[in-house]
Amino acid sequence: MAQPVNAVAEIPERPDVLDCIKRARKDAGEDDVEFIRLLNDCYVTKRSAMRGRIAVIAATADRSPKAKQILSDSRFLANAAELARRTQGGVRVIGGRPVAKGQFLDCVAVGNDHQWGCTGTLIAPNVVVTAGHCATFATRVFFGNDVTKQGKITAVKKSVPHPEYRTGKSKSDLMVLLLDERVENIGSRPLATTEVIDAATDGRVVGFGNTDPTGTFGYGIKRQVDVPVASPACMGTLDGQADAAAYGCMAGLEIVAGKPLLKKDSCTGDSGGPFYVESGPGKWAIAGATSRATNSATDDCGDGGIYVRLDRYRDWIASIPGVTLP
Fold first, then answer.
1. I need a surface site. Which of 79, 99, 208, 318 has the fewest CB within 10 A?
2. Total domains in the fold of the chain
3. Contact 293, 285 (CB under 8 A)
4. pLDDT exceeds cutoff 70 at 89
């Protein structure tokens, strides 16, 4: 995906990371800043002798002052620490794993007649929502977990970008795809309410996107990762700056979330894909659509992402002829 693309970079789950989480929890107590610092220090040490990239924010922080920015955001730190404590590590903290068969069937690959390149979500039997900048990938969708294997492919009858979206711009980065047929055997995903989104401290990103920090390879397998929320509505402040300036989000219209902690994030090819939040125990609703990386990102993938809040656009989506939301 182009620069405005931001799903799920993957590093295999490792016992040494779980050990780092346990040690950091023990030594930091209730200090969120210290918890994150200890966790990163421990993981850098654990990874220093290994080949490949060191997937830790501490490694990038030395290269760019911007990479340190999210570490000064008390909202992010508290949510990241709580996510680690609540789940004892596991995939919700380490992130990036293939979606199990039968889960998140509403998350689809979006492509043109020649290739796949984006992600979307079925929100009604004949309606998929994706990103506005995915216009070149908007003639068909794939239902399944791996685009190289068997799955259901459905043609797009009509694509409707948001009227405010302009190529290369950020505002209203949404597009609705009306399918050529109704998909009745796969449950569509309900839109999260404003109250649920505002209260969310973390969410689950799902997508078919690339899996390296530069966003250049790995597209095709549906993966998931859980990430802490920094700003649920781009309405707070960070180091005296409004979130809109600090992160590059649209005030009141977007969610900022990410995982620079261990390089777990949305990535190129996840554009348009779902940012889910829990609406109840074990129940997931779609809160946002993946748009792009934050201003503070040093890599295209792995340093936090911006997601368009669908509750702010529900009326527009519902007004499109042929769309009937649950």
1. 318
2. 1
3. no
4. no
What letter represents residue 34's amino acid?
A: E
168 lies in a domain? yes
Q: Are 136 and 112 in contact (CB under 8 A)?
A: yes
Query: Which residues on neighbouring strands pair with residue 122, listed in sequence order?
Result: 128
Dihedral in degrees, nearest 10, Cα atoms 63, 27, 202, 132: 10
Average predicted confidence (pLDDT) for the chain: 77
| pLDDT-derived band at 69, boundaries 50, 70, 90 | low
pLDDT (tens digit per residue) in 152-203:
999 999 999 999 999 878 899 999 999 999 999 999 999 999 999 999 999 9
- Render the burial of 216-230: b for 16+ CB within 10 Å, e for the rest: eebbbbbbbbbbbbb
Closest alpha carbon to 245 in 234, 255, 254:
234
> What share of residues in the chain are helix, strand, coil (percent, to 5)?
25, 25, 45
Q: Are 203 and 304 in contact (CB under 8 A)?
A: no
Residue 246 lies in a domain: no
Q: Tell me if 174 is assigned to some domain.
A: yes
- In this structure, the number of other CB atoms found within 10 A of the CB of residue 182 comes to 12
CATH number at residue 141: 2.40.10.10
User: pLDDT of 125-156, one tens digit each?
Assistant: 999 999 999 998 899 999 999 998 989 999 99
User: Is 277 contained in some domain?
Assistant: no
Boundaries of domain holding 120: 107-189+315-319
